[in-house]
Amino acid sequence: MKADLKAAQEVVELITGGWRAQAVHTAAKLGLPDHIEAGRTTSGELAEATGAEEEGIRRLMRLLVAMGVFEGDHETGYRNTPVATALLDRPGTLRDMCLLYGEEFYTAWGNAVECFTTLTAGFELAYGKPLYSYLDGHDDLAVRFQRTMKAGNLFFDYVPEIFDFSGGKTVVDCGGGNGHLLSVILEAAPDARGALIDREHVIPIARDYLSGTIGLDRVELHAGDMFKAVPQGGDVYLFCRVLAGWSDDAVVEAFRHCRHAMAGPGSRLLVLDRTVTDKDSTVLPALWDLHLLMTNGGKHRSVDQFRTLLDRAGFDVERIAELPMETTALVAAPRASE
Length: 338
Prior knowledge:
The chain is an alpha/beta fold. It folds into 3 domains: about 80 residues, Arc Repressor Mutant, subunit A, CATH 1.10.10.10; about 55 residues, no CATH class; about 180 residues, Rossmann fold. The protein contains 18 helices and 9 strands. Strands 5-4-3-6-7-9-8 form a 7-stranded mixed beta sheet, sandwiched between helices. Strand 8 and strand 9 form a beta hairpin. Helix 4 packs across helix 5. It starts with a helix and ends with a strand.
């Protein structure tokens, strides 16, 4: 009986995915897209610029050209494709994501079997501490992590299209990170004000970012734990991709804090996150669900699971909207009877 060559080819492509990822990571680490952008287009020039062996660069580039990251060849020189341009060392690219995923998170995935069989985060197995505790003691990694989060926020520009933040509303971003989403919202609603709460080491990052975008005169920054308290008097409370690493009880408690802190019955709570389904799932949510388990022991929830948690906290889901990158927005209203 002849082997199923198509199936065998698919298996080979699947199991060599890590090699491909490391090849792209190496290109970003060595700054190859930047060197090519600067006119160093031959293997020799790239080797000299990076301190690498020319043969190593030539063989690496052979694969990366085949993968579509670069164009050209050893004899005529190499050119950046749009993929390579997305890895340039400049604000707004995916370079920091590539470095983080190719180093610390790649190391975490080396513990996949134990992670998936014991539900222990691969990052904690690899580094001996939970992700966020580890970030608290490693400032450079914390900055790269925040930049990575920003790079993955391709849907942020569409958030003002699914909810009206105007009318002098106060928008509270819970776990708001560097303030990117809040800045997008406040730029779209010039009469709105904002507040951001996050861990103490994140606040300086948010201050730097917001001071360079919308300015600090429209924003209050709060160092604290959103599972213990949130800023008072908000008209909109946001939770954007920050709930996956926390238990159901902790999430309900955070929602309840918002419920009691809201300015009035017209206030709303927004949850922006990827949601999962066990039937006819696409790859991206399923993959990121495993990645959450790998990095912080978390998980993505289904829409029905979010409904249940919001219900426990005294909210009714008013509307559901879809955002790019398979992201879901749930708009919830506080129940008048509670």
